[in-house]
Amino acid sequence: MSIDDTIQTLFLELHQNPELSNQEFETTKRIRSYLEKAGIRILELGAKTGVIAEVGQGSPVLAIRADIDALPIDEQAECDYRSKNNQAMHACGHDVHTSILMGAAYLLKAQEQDLQGTVRFLFQPAEENFNGALELIDVGALNGVDAIFGLHNNPALTINQMTSCAGPFSANVDRIEITVTGVGAHAARPEAGVDPIVIGAQIVTAIQTIVSRSISGLDAAVVSITKFLAGNTWNVIPETVEMEGTVRTLTPQVREQVKTTLKTIVENIAAGMGGKGELRWFDGPPSVINVASWVELAKKVAQQVGYEVIDVEPSLGGEDFAHYLHHVPGAFLNLGSQSDYALHHPKFKIDRDMIMPAANYWFELAKAALTTLHSSLNSNPKNSPENSSEKNH
Ligand SMILES: [Zn+2]
Ligand SMILES: [Zn+2]
Question: H helices within 285-348, ranges in order?
Fold first, then answer.
């Protein structure tokens, strides 16, 4: 079977048998068996799900990552290879990312003798709940790695389009909870209590001034309150209000600024009105910060293999690939998948003709990146192979 046929088959198998984050047990077995069939070496690092594999030898080491998990969605796509499980669907295209990386692994394996170093493949679990990258980093997936690439399909682009940008490419994704505590009272006698609903409403409105008044017009931020729960009947002023929401920012500085301002607003508006406001902030994945030189190489190779390279604004969505970039330099990019429906939509369906060209792109980019790393290792003795394993710590 040709590599193209093999990875199309893998794609169909993955798509029909999706598994949710941290439960990718059959998916893991399937990836292992495809790697074993091609004689590709698997690193046994002890990850519960997900697979780490390599071709080539020695330094430098380039890593490429694909995510493998699916979403809890009942698939409604018009196709003859729908998910067999109505509790799960590959609605983010991680099945296609996995198939593309497998194709690259097969292509690189066929030229293993000629590689100037090692290419490590990270088949990462649990991207959707933002745990997987940290899990793989914990088991040592980045040890010795000099640079890393990852991609996400983009349904808004045609299958011959590629995009990326230097600096922030996705958002810091943080979750917030706010509790406002007042004093319950009869609805007819508000003066006897402290109404947390009125305080909560003021807080929701005031929070919107963070983006319009506290952040530079040149910086991006979003603060959304998405849940507001209070009271349970018509004639009682309740004791508390519970809110939830999300904050999206692109840089660590703006992230800190929003966090501090939000806390001040929540605590002081509530205090000023006789109640108590409490903010609880939960850090999500940081923003993907791409390194310019690696973005440049990714774009150059994309053009060489026939992609149209287009420019985009950074997205305020999240991507846990960001965690890898805190340890090693690299770049995250988008390739077009041309779907009529967006990511996470029950009718999301990629154009399967994107798979083989994308595998070939990883193959060419991996070789180009090893060449770049090889020459920088030789010109900079501090980065000699003997020292490279220390660089991640
Ligand atoms: Zn997703
Ligand atoms: Zn995704």
Answer: 292-304, 322-325
Model confidence, pTM: 0.88
Calculate how far, in angstroms, residue 173's C-alpha sits from the geometric centre of ligand 2.
14
Ligand 1 centroid distance, CA of 71 (Å): 7
Among 250, 247, 246, 248, which residue's Cα sits nearest to residue 219? 250
The pLDDT of residue 381 is: 54
Q: pLDDT tens digit string along 317-328?
A: 899 999 999 999
Q: Long-range contacts: 30-35, Cβ < 8 Å, 24+? A: 31/68, 31/98, 31/102, 31/123, 34/6, 34/10, 34/102, 35/102, 35/105
Q: Cα of 93 to ligand 2 centre, how many Å?
A: 6
What integer pLDDT is reported at residue 387 of this predicted model? 43
**Residue whose entry in the numeric block shows the structure tokens 């060449």:** 371
pLDDT digits (tens, 9 = 90+) for 56-96: 999 999 999 999 999 999 999 999 999 999 999 999 999 99
Expressed in angstroms and rounded, the spacing between residue 371 Cα and the centre of ligand 2 is 29
Average pLDDT of the residues in 356-373: 98
Q: Which residues surround ligand 1, an ion (CB under 5 A)?
A: 92
pLDDT digit string (tens) for 8-40? 999 999 999 999 999 999 999 999 999 999 999
β-strand partners of 43:
52
Give me 157's structure tokens.
């682009």
**3-state DSSP assignment of residue 63:** strand
CA of 69 to the centre of ligand 2 (A): 8
DSSP 142-186: TTT--EEEEEEEETTS-TTEEE--SEE-S-EEEEEEEEEE-B-EE
Query: Do the Cβ atoms of 171 and 89 come closer than 8 Å?
Result: no
Strand 289-290 and strand 167-168: the pairing is antiparallel
